[in-house]
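Deliverable D4.2, example record:
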Amino acid sequence: MKLEGKYAIITGGAGGIGKATAKLFLDEGAAGVLLVDLLEKNLEEAKKELGDKRVYTYAANVSKATGVKAYTDKAVDLFGKIDVVFLNAGTEGVVKSLTEYTEEEFDLVIDVNVKGVWLGMKYAFPQMEKNGGSIIITSSVAGLTGTPKMIAYTTSKHAVIGTMRVAAKEGAPFNIRVNTIHPGPVENRMMRSLEDQMAPGAGAEVKKGFESMVPLGRYALNEDIANMAAFLASDDAKYITGATFVVDGGFSA
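Output generated by the structure prediction step:
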């Protein structure tokens, strides 16, 4: 019960990684988890799937200050404090060359993946300064290398490493730890989208190609990422901040 008595916010909470992490947090004794996502119907489905009275939901656009402040305030109203914030919401954007990307397409990815992380920390910090805690950011192996035809996503996932490092130093005096997780390909909706965009009608072949590049021979499961998030949320990681954690089966080795 490594998270016994802790209260957490998980953005992107209705997605595969978000739900898997919520389940593990609850299994590890979390006293309450607030799932945040864009659509109420998806949140209700996630809450029903988890089937636990300690799960709460809030629909918000993480790229808007009003939405982020609202979900943070909701967590404080529900729980009285915030111990863990998993800034996991993200969008893959479109797959096309950098010259074909539109300004609107680029801005959407940056707003969700970068601005959403900054805003999450901006409103969480004042609450967490009282008791300390852990902020975990979902980046990607795309934040450590370049991926053709994914200019916005790759840029955004590099950018959150910089935001993490600044926040880790600003948070340290208050015992707020900040770290990033870098998944490789994960068995979920986002990878299905990317596979299909890379080769319309032949996504299965794209998947085989990616799997051949993973030394451990498979995509990550959502639970593999959740395991790392739970570790970073727990007191087992109480001396870890400002660090990057790759969970990719050796993909980036």
